[in-house]
Design a protein that fits this description.
- By secondary structure, the chain is an alpha+beta fold.
- It contains 3 helices and 14 strands.
- Strands 1, 3, 5, 8, 9, 10, 11 and 13 form an 8-stranded antiparallel sheet that branches.
Length: 207
Amino acid sequence: MRILSMLLVTVFVLENLLLGTVYAAEAIDIHKTPIVRANTVKKGDAYIPGGTVLEAEVTRNVSSHDFRTGDQLPLRLAENLYVNDVLVAPRGTRIESVITKARRSGGFGIRGKLEFHVVSMRTLNGVEIPLQREIKKKGESDNGAVAVGLFVSLLGGAFMKGRNSSIPQGTRFTVEVTEDTDLDTPLNQLAEAMDSYRSYGVSVRSR
């Protein structure tokens, strides 16, 4: 009787683990917090409006097998950002983002999991632009759909390993500026201000 009770409990647990994850294809769930509008822009200053949408790009392969909670996600700006035709953040600018949850895949079809939160990036003159985008990504189970009977082999279930969650290099998605961001420069001096922060040096041409 005790053995039968243990088997029933095992079946219940496996049904939740397997049926809750095995049938789901690999997916990304996106959660966005409300945009906060802030009246912090000085009159006459150049600024980036809250709600501005930018494209971000993952710069190398990311997997729940290799990354841990608290790690930085390798992310950069995938396009130039201009204000009134003045470049304020070039393509390739680093975007600060942190992995908020990383879980490796495991036995019984448990999938790997990755969650990360986009934080901010900086303009050429060092102004921090607050960004938002939360992404949650799960892997999938190895065996596709699995029927769970009354008597389940614990040993067999342990070897049915789920897949790690992964984000391939080159993956792109949009991020959003969360609030009006003052660039600490009068609009009529923006071009001069940004130009002074560019890198200069010697350019050579090889034949």
